[in-house]
Amino acid sequence: LEAVVKKMTPFLREAYFLPESFTKRGTEAAEVIDQSNRVLLDAFNIEDGEVVYTSGGTASNNIVISGVLRDVDLREAHIVCTVIDHPSIVNTYEYYRKKGASVTFLKVDGNGLIDPEELRKHIQTKTVLISLTHTNHTIGAIQPLEQLLPIIKEQNPKTRIHIDATMSLNAMALDLSQLPIDFLTFSGHKIYGPKGVGAIVFRKNGPLKPILFGTVTTSPFSPGAENIPGIVGLSEALRIATAQREAYLHKMRPLQERTIKRIESEIPDVVLNGPRPHPEGNLYTFSVKRAIDNINFSFRYVEGESIMMFLDFEDIIVATGSACASSDLKVNYVLSAIGRDHEMAHGSLRITPGWGNDEEQIDQMIDRLKPIVSRLRAQAPCDRYF
Amino acid sequence: MVAGYEGGKALAVIKYSEKVLEHFRNPKNIGMIEDADGQSTVGSPACGDQVSMFLKIREDRITDIKFLSYGCASNIATGSIITEMAKGKTLTEAKAITWKNAVDELGGLPPVKIHCSVLAIDGLSRNPGL
């Protein structure tokens, strides 16, 4: 977003000093960080909170998980996440499983949602941490936090709750005065902010231990020189996202509706991956199960990377969960977890409209997608033999 | 030349050469031959890509060759180049075409895309007509 770049740019030169000395320049840098902290705490409606700036969502999730577990006896610890959480959660949990912690990877239903009763069963007395991705990055499934979090607190009030809100913030507010979230993580580039910067917001004196060591200036959890332009960009992006949620919702809803309607009615053998959008979903309530800016389809008899490449020739950028597009030749783990077989995951396409798109572009995209899919299907041996 | 390298310099691991993109966009010899002398299908949608290859043979020579692909750009481009290379060749010559020959002809492939290209070569080498 241009406004974010404009706000950040002067800080490539200004407030360049470390915010640790009482000099004019040092104080200036400290004030810039203070103001950004205020924006973040206001956005999540938390009076007495702490902010840690990181290099992105991945670093934020790692610092929270490892920071909570640092001084815990892993043989006595139980931790919970879902099978479809972001890799920065799932892979970190898998690391702690190998180190001896007891780990539950909660299964999800065909839409990518957690069963509340299943969750209840798995929160034990020794569950120290649960991490949940609020909005799934692949299929846009939104976990109903207002329903799930009380269950966790009921079962074990000491279990720390970590929510990755990276994919949520353009469309949804997370109110920490209402939701018992201990650690909230997010990243700049999903809210039209800078890449390579993210944050952790948590309650003061939360049970976090530093896992990075060095010169501590503003936060013991992120020692070293602060990324002042990044911090300014992140807070400005969040401020704008918060102010424009209503407008975002109004802009995205018809784009999502149109994309789904046209693909389902004009291209045969397709399956929508993830929950069907609520017909009149109000994103300020939690009744919505699907992100407004996520569309994910599987196209039978076509390989996803081929579709993606042909759209790329037309300067239309989408993503795929095809095995061909991964380095380990496995299909997307989220699509596997919601029960899509290899073939359906292989032919998947994720379409994520944003501020820069309009209805005309959606129509252009689908007008181009149709002949691409027909052509690739005609080139494929599948329908002739299966 | 090694796959993924061009002119001694490493390509970005996720970059396709111009030639790969051209063969992917406009694959040669795509389709099927109804009365093929040799027909093979390798791979399966259940586990990944699938390639079918059809040969027409006259007096020990490949007079026509076509393929179908349920696969990615790497797979389609390799199918295209290998059918071009095999067309008009004697069976012995066609048998001698290796995966490396095809990848060199394509100007290299990103290392992660090698698996997808091997299948296209299997379609030829495992063809009963050969």
Defining traits:
heterodimer; A: 386 residues; alpha/beta; seven-stranded mixed sheet; three-stranded antiparallel sheet; B: 130 residues; 5 helices; 35% helix
Q: What does it look like?
A:
The complex is a heterodimer of chains A (386) and B (130). Chain A is of the alpha/beta class and 386 residues long. Chain A has 13 helices and ten strands. In chain A, helix 1 runs antiparallel to helix 7 and helix 3 runs parallel beside helix 4. With 130 residues, chain B is α+β, with helices and mostly antiparallel strands. Chain B has five helices and five strands, in the order ββαβββαααα. In chain B, helix 1 packs across helix 2 and helix 2 packs parallel to helix 5. The radius of gyration of chain B is 14 Å and the shape is globular.
Chain-averaged pLDDT of chain A: 93
Shape of chain B: globular
Biggest β-sheet strands, sense, barrel of chain B: 3 strands, antiparallel
- Structural class designation of chain A: alpha/beta
Describe the oligomeric state of these chains in a short phrase.
Answer: heterodimer
The main sheet of chain B orders its strands as 3-4-5
Binned strand content of chain B = 15-25%
Low-pLDDT segments, ≥5 res of chain B: 1-11
Total count of strands of chain A: 10
What Rg of chain A, in angstroms, do the CA atoms define? 22 Å
Question: What's the structural blueprint in terms of helices and strands?
Answer:
The complex is a heterodimer of chains A (386) and B (130).
Chain A: H1 2-8, H2 24-43, E1 49-54, H3 57-69, E2 78-82, H4 87-98, E3 102-106, H5 116-122, E4 127-133, H6 145-155, E5 160-164, E6 183-187, E7 198-203, H7 228-243, H8 245-266, E8 270-272, E9 295-299, H9 304-313, H10 333-337, H11 342-346, E10 348-351, H12 359-379, H13 382-385
Parallel strand pairs in A: 2-3, 2-4, 4-5, 5-6
Antiparallel strand pairs in A: 1-7, 6-7, 8-9, 9-10
Helix pairs in contact in A: 1-7, 2-7, 3-4, 8-12, 9-12
Chain B: E1 5-6, E2 9-10, H1 18-25, E3 38-43, E4 50-58, E5 61-70, H2 73-86, H3 91-95, H4 99-105, H5 114-125
Antiparallel strand pairs in B: 1-2, 3-4, 4-5
Helix pairs in contact in B: 1-2, 2-5
